[in-house]
Structures are given as C-alpha cells and as structure tokens.
Amino acid sequence: MYFLCFSIFVCFYFHFVFYTGITTIIWILIQLFILMEVGVRIVGIVLRVLNFLLAPLFWLHWRKQDPLRVPPIQNPVLLQSASELAEAIRSGKLTSEEVVTTFISRIHEVNPHINAVVQDLMCTAVYRAREADLLLREVRLRGEIDELIVTKPLLGVPFTIKESCSLKSMSNSVGCLEHRGRTAREDGRAVQLVTEAGAIPLLISNTPELCLGWETTNLLHGATNNPYRLSTTPGGSSGGEAALLASGASALSVSSDIAGSIRIPAAYCGVFGHKPTPGIISIEGHVPTLTDENYPKFLTVGPMTRYAEDLPLLLSVMAGQQAHRLELQRPVAVDRLRIYHMTEATKSIALLSVHPAIQQAVLKATDYLHNKCGATLCAEKFKELEESVEMSVSVFFAMKDIPNMLQDPLNPKHEKSLLMEIIKYFTGNGSRSLQALGFALLRSKLLFIPRRRLAHHRERARRLRTIMMEKLGTDGVLLYPVHNSLAHYHNQVFLRASGVMYSMLFNVLGFPATVVPMGLHDGLPVAIQVIAAPYQDRLCLAVAKQLEERFGGWQPIV
Fold first, then answer.
1. Of 81, 83, 96, 162, which one is the catalytic site residue?
2. Is 261 labeled as catalytic in the residue annotation?
3. 162 catalytic, yes or no?
4. Over the stretch 158-212, which tens digit does the pLDDT of each residue have?
5. Thinking of the domain 76-322+330-389+451-551, which architecture would CATH place it in?
6. Active site residue: 164, 256, 261, 282, which one?
7. Start and end of every Amidase domain (predicted)?
C-alpha cells in the first residue's frame, strides 16, 4: 500500500514536469512492476501490440474468403432438435433411416467447405438405422413404447464424436502424424452410453494435435473452418464437432473440455455446449490421458447440441449411473435465482478487451433475467478473476505427464529443439503444427511466471474456488464471456490466446458452465457462458433454455 501511495505521488510530480503522455507511460510501468506478474504482462502487451499491427494483414490475406459460408439448410428435418427427432421416430412420423440419410446428405454437402470429418461410418449408420426401425415396429406391436423411452431415449437419432473421445475401430490418431493409422480398441465410456441409448454414430471429427490447442488444425488432417465464415476458425479443441453442429450436419455431439475445448468452439460456432461438473461423466477412453490425480478434475467429457432442450437429455445419458447426482429432473425456478454478471475480468492493458458485442450480450441476458424473469440481481463482482491467467497456468501446468510436443517419438528420451522445429515447419518439413509448437513454448516457459510464485497462484485459485462456491451456492449463476473475441481468422489464435482465461479457469476450479448463443454480430455468432457451483449444472441448463426462448439460440445459416 505504501508503494502504491508513493507511486501515485511520483506520477503527480511528473505530471507537472513533463507532458501527460510521459506521465501515463510511467504510471503504466509502475502498475506493471508493483501490482502484477511482470513477465505475464509483458507477454500480454507484446501480443496486444502485434494483434493491432497484424490485424490488417490477416484481413488482407483472408478478405476474398470473408463472404464464404456453408450452403443454407433446405431440408426441415435438419432443423428439428434431437428430442423432436427421437419423438418423431418413436411415433412413426419419421423413420430412423430417413433421419440418418438426411444428415449424411448434409455432411456430404458441407464437409468440403468445413473439413471437419476425420473418418465416417455412414454405410454402417444406415444399417443401424434400419435395425432401429425394425425394433420400433416390434415394440409398437407389443405396446412397450413407454419402456423404450426410458431405456433408449435416443433410439434412431444420429450423433457425431470428437476423435479424442474414441469410437471403436475408428481413427484415434488425434491429429498426430506419428499416430497415423492408429484406431480405437473400444468405445470411450461416454460414447458407449450414448450408443446404448439408441443413438447412431455417424463419424469422428477433427481436433488439434492431442487436443492441445484452441484452433482445430493439425498436419494430419488440416484446418477445420467455421461454417459462418470459412476464413475463420471454429475454435478448439472440439472445433470439428462445433462446425458440424452449426452447419446442421449433426444432431448431437460427444466432445471434451479441458481448457475451454467445448465452450470456445460452441461460442465461435453459435451452438450450445456444456462443461459438466468433473467426475459426473466418465473420461475413460479419452485420448490423451494423464496419470496425474488432478487430470480427471480438469478434463470433462460433455455434450454439445444445437438446442438447449437437448443438453439435459444428452447429459443424463452420458452421465449414466452418476446422473442422479445432478438432479436434472428437479425443476428450476428462474425467478428465484441470483444473477451475478461480469462483462470482462479486468481492464488490464496487457489483455485484449472483450468484444463489445459480447459485453452487450452479457448485459442483455442479465437485464432479461432480472427485469423480465424476476431473478435477483447481485451487484458484487469476483475481482479475483483478474488473475485468471496466472492461476490457470500455475495449476494446469503443475500436472504430470502433460504431452511433450517436442519429444521425439522414435527416441522418447530425446527432446527436439523448438527453434529447429519452427524452422522445419516453415520449410514444409515439420512434424508438429505451429500451434503445437506454441503450446510447447507455453509449457516450458509458463508465461515467465517465476516458479517461486506458482504455489502462491495455486493457493489463490483454491481460495477463489471457496469464495465462488459460497457466493453462488445452490441458487446463483455467473454470466460471463466465453472468450474475449468472436471467431477470428485462422492462425490469429497466437495473438488472441489470452482470451482463454475466460474459460480455462473454470476447468481449474471444477465449476460447470454452459455456453449460450445470443445471436449474430456482423455474421458471426455471439455467445456467453453461464457458470454455477459444482453439481448445480441444472441451473446452467435452465438459464440456457430461458435465454434461448428470448434470444433465439442457434441461428441456422441462411
């Protein structure tokens, strides 16, 4: 405090000696060195300056593709929710074969534009659809349709799977060149439960290398495009799934989230995504997997959908015997909720500001829930979120066995040179994508946070978790950005990476969060996330449904 008072005095002195610009610079430097982690802020400032300087170059490079998007949906079957499709199949209004072949046709139509499919099993899917239709005819004759709703609530409905979540006999390389040709020995547990509920897998979709990136691109399968604007990214690491859903080429998705990997793609592509409370949905069969005891606390397998009503259904199925812990069937009275909201974590000069459209979406959602739905507005802010970057990096990179992207697969004891790998990438001989190499740099340097300070930030994260659990309780939610930007151009992720602070921290804290699309801005989706205390997932889902009714949710591409 004495240092801060002294710094203020010094700045006032300089104000009378020099002109205002110098005073401002000195004040900024004092703030950096007294109040913040210097290394983190310097990196942030450099990236912010580069983002400003290079933004015109990204626009010039991609401007010819800017108007391009996937073809609009023509078949009304593709506009129905998974819940509606399941009911239509059960009632006989549609056959599973009709539904599955309709989605297959849509996949063939859009995938040349978005490049989301790694491997498909469409012929098998049609065969399974015919089997589902035969089963339904038998069940109707026996009058056992009500039992089928309980045992196979998704019978005949097609779904898609993020490659890392594992589908038996299908590609399991997860974007790595050295794993080319590797297949999954078994279904991941969540995939298995969805299949047992009667849903029919269509394909597995693209990810970054080992899911270690926030843009879906790798040297094995290339980059996936955002269906709303093909020159932009769908995010990562579940970008393939988000792009398929947003295109109307998937009804349901099994995905995963360890640092915003469901939520950022859902936000960029304007669909619903839920990161559940950890431990509810099994991560068995997920690639990669770590031996660290904290890994299951950070990684969650979860659902992505086009409609809010499908989230609790798919979440319940994926949770299996753990579903009862979430009490998803228990009604939520929105008018009795307490609403916290923040349009950004901090106004630090080291971080990009949250896009105005996202800030407005948070405010509009807050106003609607308070003034129209009767929820109680809480003015208090969680100031501790200002240090989200430091807390996230300090906790996340404390895990053991985080994949080393510089490890030589032919000689595991040998670590490649980062500089040489970057040079090889730009000469076309690289074995890692530029994004993977960026992750390797982040892993090794920890954003220049001094190692002596890591324990301090981990303790701050622990305290923040306690504070937020107490404040949110069993009836409170926080409305918050998912990222600081809308979907950005391909490869711009390096300059916008700080935006993951809005999602990554809630993996570290273990809180559930639901992404809610809130409309379009300049043709790109705008979304927010609804965060609740652990095991209060149903609050997130109820708010998502309420906001969908007011703001429209997923917007089909026209």
1. 162
2. yes
3. yes
4. 999 999 999 999 999 999 999 999 999 999 999 999 999 999 999 999 999 999 9
5. Alpha-Beta Complex (3.90)
6. 261
7. 98-541
